[in-house]
Write a structure and sequence with these properties.
With 653 residues, this protein is an alpha/beta fold. The protein folds into three domains: 5-259, ANL, N-terminal domain (Rossmann fold, 3-Layer(aba) Sandwich); 280-426 and 444-469, Luciferase, Domain 3 (Luciferase, domain 3, Roll), CATH 2.30.38; 474-652, GMP Synthetase, Chain A, domain 3 (2-Layer Sandwich). The chain is 40% helix and 21% strand. The chain has 22 helices and 28 strands. The strands form eight sheets. The protein has a five-stranded parallel sheet, sandwiched between helices. It has a four-stranded mixed sheet with strand order 2-1-11-10, sandwiched between helices. It is globular. The N and C termini lie far apart (67 Å).
Length: 653
C-alpha cells in the first residue's frame, strides 16, 4: 500500500512510514543481562508482522481484544501494534495487579488472547482461567520457569512467530491488506481506569484521538527523532501509551526499556533521556534519595551542597528562563555551582540531557518544583486523564507557575460550570466507556463536553488551578471549604510523609491519617541512634510523632494564609500502624488513595480522632521486613497539632 501524509492516521501505518524513512535507526532498546540490546525500526516492524500473522493463524480476528501484561518490553509493545494491525484492540493490564483484579478486566473486556511477560504473569492468568471462560490463548515472552508447564493454552513467543512466518509465506498479501482496512475511527486501545470509587471502567480511545493528541504534544515542545525516552511506567497507564508508544510512532524517537523496576535509576543514568515524564511521587522519591545521600556525606560536601542550592533557589529559575535582573556575581556563583554541584548531581540522577520534564496526576509541592527547576531542569506540570488522552492543560516553557497546571492545550476547550467542575471538549475525548453506555452518557454531555469530576478555576493569567475532585469537595460544619486532596498533597510535600488521608466533611475540625516514608524516616532515625525493628515500630516512636507534628503544623500555617481553606487546618492526627497498600484495596494501582474505603475500613480510628481520645486500640495482621507475618496489637497514639490564626501564620512565616 502507498504511505503518504494523508494516510498516517493509524499506528500501524505510522510504523510502516518510519520503516521507510529510518529503517536502520534505533526504535527501541532493552537492557538484558546488563547489556543494552537495540531494535531498529525494520526489526520492530518484522516482529510486529510475524506476531500479527501468528495471532491471525491462531484465530485472532478484527475486533478481538488482546490482553498485555508485564513490565515495559519491546515484545509487549510489538504485540500491541500487532493487534492493531489486525484491527484488534490491545488491553494492557497492570503488572502488579493480583489475579482477582486481572480477572475482572479480562471478563469485562471479553479477552480471548493474552501476551504475558514471564512466569509470574502466566501463573496469574492460568489461575483465573476457570473464571474467565473466554480466555483460551496465553503467549509468553520469557520462557524461564515454564519448561514443564503442560497446558494447551500456552504458546511461546518464538513459536507464535514461527507460525506467523509460515502463515505469511502462504498468504503474503494478508498483512498489508488487513492493515489497509484499518480506520482512524477504530478503537486503538482500551485502558482501564484506576477504580478509585468502584470497579474500573474500560476507556476506549481511537487512533484519531491518540494520534491527534500525540501530534499536539510533539509540536508543543518540539520533540524530534533524536530524543531518548526511558519507558518505565506501567503499560496499562494512559501516560505510557501516549508518551511512550504514541509519541514514538509520531516523532520517530527511541524508547528505552529498563532491565527491571529495581534498576530504573541505574538505567536512567546510563541512557540520559532527553525528555522525561513521571508522577510527583517519582520526583519525590528521587529528591528523598538525594537528601539521604547528602546527609550521609562529609561536613564539607554538605556545606557546599546547601550553600550552592541556596544560590540555585535564589536565581536558578530566572537564569533558566532567560529573565533579567540577575546580578553578575550571582551568575558567576551559579556557573560555579553548575561545575561543582548541579552538573554532577544531574549526571548522577540521569537528568543531564533533559530538555523538558513533565509531571501530572497529582499536585507537586512548591519546594519540590523549585528544587528541580532551580537546577536548570525544565520541569512542567500538566493536567489530564485517561478519558481525554491525558493532555488538557500544560505549562508552556517560560510560563511555568507553581500552583497551576497551565492553560488549555491547542484545540482543547475547558469550561468551568457553576458547581466548580471542570468540563473538557477536544479531539482527544474518549469514544466511550466499553460496554457502559450509561456511564458514557453521564460523562459526556450533549455538547460533547467530558465532565472530569475535578473542581478548579482559572487564574488571572488563564492558567487552570485544580483543587480537588468535585465530589470530594465538601464543607466543614461552619461552611468552610473542605478539599481533602488539597490537604493531603500539602502533607505529602514533606519527605517524611508518603501518604495522608484527610477527614473533615460536615465536621467541626479536620483530622488526618499519616503514612510515614520508611526509608526517609528510617535514615533520620538511624542518624539519631533510634533503634527500631520495622515500619510498625518506627511509626509508633514518640520522636517520629514529633517529626510529623512539625510537618502538620507547617501545613496549618500555610492553610491559615488562605482564607478559603483556613478553617480546615488539621487539629489531630495519628500515624497508621501499616503502610497503605493497593493489595489491601487502600490504594489504586496508580497509588491514589481510596479515601472512602479507608474511612470505612478504619472507622474506629476515625471516630477515635473525633472522640477526644489520646489513643485507640488496634489489632491487625502485619508483614515484617524479613517476610514474616504476625498480629499487631497495640494502642495507637493520637496527637494534637497547633492551629493558627491568619495573623499568627504571618508571624510564623
Amino acid at each position: 500500500m502507498t504511505i503518504n501524509a494523508e494516510t498516517l492516521d493509524t499506528f500501524p501505518r505510522l510504523l510502516l512510514h518510519h520503516v521507510r524513512r529510518r529503517g536502520t535507526r534505533s526504535a527501541l532498546r532493552e537492557k538484558d543481562l546488563g547489556i543494552w540490546q537495540t531494535w531498529t525500526w525494520t526489526r520492530f516492524a518484522d516482529e510486529v508482522r510475524s506476531v500479527a500473522c501468528g495471532l491471525a493463524a491462531s484465530g485472532f480476528q478484527r475486533g478481538s481484544h488482546l490482553a498485555i501484561v508485564g513490565d515495559n518490553r519491546p515484545r509487549l509493545y510489538a504485540a500491541m501494534c500487532a493487534a492493531q494491525c489486525l484491527g484488534g484492540v490491545p488491553v494492557p493490564l497492570y503488572q502488579d495487579a493480583v489475579a482477582a483484579e486481572m480477572a475482572f478486566v479480562i471478563r469485562d473486556a471479553e479477552i480471548e488472547f493474552a501476551v504475558a511477560e514471564d512466569q509470574e504473569q502466566v501463573d496469574k492468568l492460568l489461575e483465573i482461567m476457570p473464571d474467565c471462560p473466554a480466555l483460551k490463548h496465553v503467549i509468553y515472552d520469557n520462557p524461564r520457569g515454564l519448561r514443564h508447564y503442560e497446558t494447551t493454552h500456552l504458546t511461546g513467543w518464538d513459536v507464535i512467530q514461527a507460525q506467523g512466518r509460515e502463515f505469511d509465506a502462504r498468504q503474503p498479501d494478508f498483512f498489508l491488506a488487513e492493515l489497509a482496512r484499518g480506520a482512524a475511527s477504530d478503537v486503538a486501545v482500551i485502558l482501564y481506569t484506576s477504580g478509585t470509587t468502584g470497579n474500573p471502567k474500560g476507556v476506549a480511545q481511537t487512533h484519531a484521538a491518540m494520534i491527534h493528541t500525540a501530534r499536539v504534544l510533539v509540536e508543543f515542545d518540539h520533540i524530534g527523532e533524536d530524543e531518548d525516552l526511558l519507558c518505565y511506567l506501567p503499560m496499562a497507564w494512559v501516560g505510557d501509551f501516549l508518551y511512550s508508544y504514541a509519541q514514538m510512532l509520531i516523532a520517530g524517537f527511541c524508547l528505552n526499556c529498563p532491565e527491571s523496576p529495581e534498576t530504573v535509576m541505574t538505567d536512567l543514568r546510563e541512557i540520559g533521556p532527553t525528555y522525561f515524564f513521571a508522577p510527583p511521587r517519582i520526583y519525590e522519591n528521587v529528591l528523598t534519595q538525594v537528601m539521604i545521600r547528602i546527609e550521609d556525606a562529609g561536613w564539607l560536601k554538605r556545606r557546599m551542597f546547601h550553600a550552592f542550592m541556596g544560590v540555585a533557589r535564589r536565581v536558578g529559575m530566572k537564569i533558566m528562563e532567560g529573565r533579567s535582573g540577575v546580578a553578575l556575581a550571582d551568575r558567576l556563583l551559579y556557573a560555579l555551582g553548575e561545575v561543582l554541584v548541579y552538573g554532577p548531581l544531574k549526571n548522577v540522577l540521569g537528568f543531564s540531557r533533559i530538555r523538558a520534564a513533565y509531571t501530572g496526576g497529582e499536585a507537586i509541592g512548591p519546594d519540590l518544583f523549585d528544587f528541580y527547576r532551580s537546577l536548570g531542569i525544565n520541569l512542567k506540570q500538566l493536567y489530564g486523564m485517561t478519558e481525554t488522552c491525558v493532555t488538557v492543560c500544560m505549562q508552556p516553557s517560560g510560563q511555568v507557575k507553581l500552583d497551576t497546571v497551565g492553560p488549555p492545550m491547542p484545540g482543547v476547550e475547558v469550561r468551568i460550570i457553576e458547581s466548580g467542575e471542570v468540563l473538557v471538549r477536544s479531539p482527544g475525548v474518549m469514544k466511550e466507556y466499553y460496554k457502559r453506555p450509561d456511564a458514557t452518557r453521564e460523562a459526556i454531555d450533549a455538547e460533547g463536553f467530558f465532565h472530569t469530576g475535578d473542581a478548579g478555576y482559572f487564574d488571572a493569567d488563564g492558567h487552570l488551578k485544580i483543587i480537588d475532585r468535585a465530589k470530594d469537595v465538601g464543607q466543614m460544619a461552619d461552611g468552610t471549604l473542605f478539599a481533602p486532596k488539597y490537604l493531603e498533597n500539602k502533607l505529602k510535600f514533606f519527605p517524611w510523609i508518603r501518604e495522608a488521608v484527610a477527614f473533615g466533611d460536615r465536621r467541626k475540625e479536620a483530622c488526618a491519617f499519616i503514612n510515614i516514608d520508611p526509608q526517609a524516616v528510617g535514615n533520620w532515625a538511624e542518624k539519631r541512634h533510634l533503634a527500631y525493628t520495622g515500619y510498625t515500630d518506627l511509626a509508633s516512636r514518640a520522636e517520629v510523632y514529633e517529626l510529623v507534628r512539625g510537618c502538620v503544623e507547617k501545613v496549618n500555617a500555610d492553610l491559615a494564609r488562605e482564607p478559603e481553606v483556613a478553617n480546615s487546618q488539621i487539629h489531630r492526627f495519628l500515624i497508621l500502624h501499616k503502610e497503605l497498600d493497593a493489595d489491601d484495596g487502600e490504594l489504586t494501582r496508580t497509588r491514589k488513595v481510596r479515601r472512602g474505603h479507608i474511612g470505612e475500613k478504619y472507622a474506629n480510628l476515625v471516630e477515635a480522632l473525633y472522640g477526644g481520645k489520646s489513643s485507640v486500640h488496634v489489632e491487625a495482621q502485619v508483614k515484617y521486613e524479613d517476610g514474616r507475618s504476625g498480629i499487631y496489637s497495640a494502642d495507637l497514639r493520637i496527637a494534637e497539632a497547633q492551629t493558627f490564626s491568619r495573623a499568627a501564620a504571618r508571624e510564623a512565616a
